[in-house]
Amino acid sequence: MILRVVLALVLSAPPVMTPSAPPARPCPVAVPAGTTCGFLLVPERRDAPGRTIRVGYAVHRSTVRERRPDPVVYMSGGPGSASLQLTGFLAQMFPDRDVVALEQRGGRYSEPALDCPETAEALLGQLRRPPADVAAAAVTCRDRLREQGVDLRGYTTKEMAADVVALRRELGYPSWNLFGVSYSTRVMAEAAAADPEGTRSLVLDSFLPEGVNWYDDAERNLTDTMAKLGVKDAFEAMTARLNASPARVPATDPLLGQEFTARLSGDDVAAVLFEGLAGADVAAVAPALLPALAEGRDELLRPLADAAGEGLVSHEFGLYHAVQCQDELPFNASAGRSRLFTHNADKAVCDAWALPRSQPTTAAPRAPAFVLGGQYDPTTPVRTSRPAAEALPDGRFAEIPGASHAVFLSSACARRMIVEFVADPAVRTAASCQDTDGGRREDLRVTAAPYAIARAPWLAAPFAIFALTALAQLVAAALKGRALAAYGGLCGVAFAGLTAQAVYGLAARNATALAVGLPADVVPYTWIAVASVVLTAAGALLRWRRWPGWAATAVGAGFLVWWMLWVT
């Protein structure tokens, strides 16, 4: 028995793995069975060897009989986003290959982790009055990291690319397939150029080419995306209105766990939307949201203000600024003069840190490369990613309709195209995602009620009371043969069921939409609720004259007032 187990393990192991693979460690996130986690020991600065750091990674071993020998290695974007939590997702995407998820040096699951709560809090503090001092917060964070022995000059794209190459050699794979998204497309492109013999193929989702000046292009990219969504005029009207009279909006500080009042100008909202539109779910609701904001529906700003805070806990800001201040911002002419407060804050941090500017990479990857871009992506738009893909020695490009940033996360068609490319990188097909699941525009009845209910579920009590009353009325009236009252209860139950079904379907498809409104289908359903109240009142007046009939009528009438005046 033991011999069979050992033999099975030997036969199922990839022949390219060396016996001296780094020791395993407990995985810091949930991962599928067959996954081990470890640290790659690397110099903090390869140009000045001395201190070493540890870069986290996870390896998921495929268990299929015909496993491919060359794995997929993935790194998330940011800079400063974590990678390990996507191990299971990628393992399902590539069941016939090992999957390696590699953290960025300085990331959440590497050591040291360059978190900067000081600057994150100061960035959110830009929405307060008076605004927080971002530069002072950056100095505090820098000094704390220095005391820990951190040399910020070691946290660059070039060093991360060298980590990718080092991990391949450490794990013993002769070659593998590189998969980058957003910022990490730069890392993977550089790794492929530095390690041509070890790179079988290159997938670049939401490609950020080396020569593109991200800060200089940001405002144009945002305006172009609004035009593609058909809301450019509404966006400009919203911006002008709120710049003239900023809104005061209650918001939650996720770092302190406290509520505060945010002051949102039109430019502030534009900055939040620039970040938010990276998600296809936000792009799908923008055509409903922007006109409402242009008309003065400021109650819809609460989810945007909360989203600004939540975005600050998704990155390690020490790492983010170390990369931006060396590899990106110094090459941009407009840095510090943007309408987007987030970009001006980045300039303040970089001025305070005074890190040296990096040297641009000149080598191009020679491996077959597949570049994907989202139609509505304001961060790495098709306008720049398509020509960059065409300029690669063996590059090809696909635009995903309806999608935004990081298209593989939202589009099954994009994932299928990626898998097909990795299976045979030499095949140049004219694959397309037209008429597929690339995304959709949500048809919404704009209202702030669903978001308020999500934060305080007791606010939905009138709906629950109405539904339960209608159900009880249906049962009691049916047993007593009271037709009008029974039909009234049936209409109430039908309304509640149809509305719940529509809301559930929207939440399953795009939960973000519930921060903006309800499915438009619920508006005609209101007439079913009206019919319920009318029939109940008629039944109480004609034949059901005792208090239950009038109580049910009162509940229904009160519900309609709540529904029509507050919800819809």
How does this structure look, described?
- The protein is an alpha/beta fold.
- It has 21 helices and 12 strands.
- The strands form 3 sheets. The chain has an 8-stranded mixed β-sheet, with helices on both faces.
- Strand 1 and strand 2 form a beta hairpin.
- Helix 5 packs across helix 6.
- The relative contact order is 0.09.
- The N terminus is likely disordered.
- One of its GO terms (molecular function) is hydrolase activity.
- Keywords: Hydrolase, Membrane, Signal, Transmembrane, Transmembrane helix.
Give a quick precis of the structure.
The chain is an alpha/beta fold and 568 residues long. Helix content is 49%, strand content 12%. Mean pLDDT is 90; it is low at 1-21.
Give me some keywords for this one:
disordered N terminus; globular; alpha/beta; hydrolase; transmembrane helix; AB_hydrolase_fold; single chain; two-stranded antiparallel ribbon; 12% strand; 568 residues; eight-stranded mixed beta sheet
